[in-house]
Amino acid sequence: MAHLNSHYLKLKAGYLFPEITRRVKTFTDANPDAAARLIRCGIGDVTEPLPVAVREAMHKAVDELGVRETFRGYGPEQGQEFLRHAIAENDYRKRGLEIADDEIFVSDGSKCDCANILDILGVGNRIAVMDPVYPVYVDTNVMAGHTGGANEAGVYEGLVYLPCTEANGFMPGVPDEKVDLVYLCSPNNPTGAVATRQRLEEWVRYAADNEAILLYDAAYEAYITDADVPRSIYEIPGARDCAIEFRSFSKNGGFTGVRCAFTVLPKAIQCRTESGEKTALHPLWNRRFSTKFNGVSYVTQRGAEALYSSEGRKEVADLVSHYMENARILREAMNGSGLTVFGGVNAPYIWVQGPKGSTSWEIFDKVLNEAHIVITPGSGFGSAGEGYFRISAFNSRANAEEAGRRLAALKW
Ligand code: MLT
User: Fold this and answer.
1) Are residues 283 and 320 both part of a single domain?
2) What is the model's pTM?
């Protein structure tokens, strides 16, 4: 009989969002009247239609594929040149950051990129994650066999957890011990916190001193409103030597269903071989793309390119302000609740500390039963999230306003 990957058996329960869906279904099956009133502020999924600029570009691309002269089959696995160029030029070089077109790798999502990057990193690395943490970073390391088992609280043996608390502004400082890989996420999912320039400088210095790699998830970069907050890790001198950046079109361009994202992997980044020699990672990532991926569809990449046109940029700005106005409404509703509220200023997530003594899942059930609103339990993001909950601002304005009214009326 074939053997399975037994590391999968170490995973705790279900992945967070399917587990929420399961619980919501149980509730709505039992309470059909409440189902009609349900407002989903759980998963951070966009609600607003695709920008016109994107739709026009995609229609045009479909038409090109319908004509022999302009038809295209396989594209470059790493991404079409026009999109790699638009990304490198607009997101980096125009901001004074030195990134070459071929250091951009276009993919179908940041979740996949954060997982796939482990393919080119070896075993035996000491790995640090923030706690609370986007569950994908942890679960993919479990699947790859980089951890031991988990305890009751879901803490995996072998990982270094960096607690994110009110005291450190939910953005951890560097650890006292040496680690090889560090996952950082700013603007942060789930806490909505952002890393200051000073904090990122500490991390880049730490990475240089310890020959560590920073895996920098900036999927929510478009939501940064504070001019002093870095939008890219490459704003920090030295980051080109130690940081891989993950970005996505999901949350700025409304691409959660369309699927398009990218990684930036500078050629300067090196790792050690088993025999101890330093070697560049870029050719390995390039090789991985060629072997395991056939690229994002041409139509999608034309759509993503259109986000950089002047019309596309305006529409992205409108989408971001729509969700950030929702965040303001929800944040204000919670501010009157007597609970302590974080986030929602440079990120579309509001992070709330629940009443003393309540677990995150108890709060989830209360908000679902009494307000008919789906939130995300903080403990689903790690043990340091216990007692907290996350409210997503991705919604229609009408839903955000109604959710705000219901949340404000809840008795804690
Ligand atoms: C979330 O709600 O945390 C996000 O939607 C997850 C994701 O983007 O994969």
Assistant:
1) no
2) 0.97
Gyration radius of the chain's alpha carbons:
21
What is the rounded distance in angstroms from the CA atom of residue 11 to the CA atom of residue 230? 34
Per-run averaged pLDDT (10 residues), the chain, 412 residues: 96 79 92 92 96 98 98 98 98 98 98 98 96 96 97 92 96 97 98 98 98 98 97 98 98 98 98 96 98 98 98 98 98 95 98 97 96 96 95 98 97 94
Domain of residue 165, CATH code: 3.40.640.10
Find out whether 77 and 289 touch, Cβ atoms under 8 Å. Answer: yes
What is the 17 CA–ligand 1 centroid distance (Å)? 8
> Is 44 a pocket residue for ligand 1 (Cβ < 6 Å)?
yes
Q: Are residues 66 and 190 in the same domain?
A: yes
- Ligand 1 within 6 A of CB of 111: yes
Determine whether the shortest distance from the Cβ of 40 to ligand 1 is under 6 A.
Answer: no
Domains of the chain: total: 2
Residue 7 placed within a domain: no
Closest CA to 6 of 142, 152, 151, 150: 142
Report helix angle 310-335 to 52-65, nearest 10: 140
Do 17 and 64 sit in the same domain of this protein? Answer: no
CA 355 to ligand 1 center in whole angstroms: 25
- Atom 6 (ligand 1) nearest CA: 44
User: Is the CB of 189 within 6 Å of ligand 1?
Assistant: yes
From 16, 19, 40, 43, mutation site for ligand 1 pocket: most ligand atoms within 8 A of C-beta: 43
The reply to whether 147 and 226 lie within a common domain is yes
The residue among 308, 334, 369 that closes a domain is: 308
257, two tokens: 């269903």
d(CA 254, CA 57): 15
Q: Which of 17, 139, 250, 258 to mutate to test the pocket of ligand 1 (most atoms within 8 A of CB)?
A: 17
Which residues does residue 114 pair with via DSSP β-bridges, in sequence order?
A: none
Dihedral class, residue 107 (left if φ above 0, else alpha if ψ from -120 to 50, else beta): beta
- Output b/e per residue, 252-274; b: 16+ Cβ within 10 A: bbbbbebbbbbbbbbeebebeee
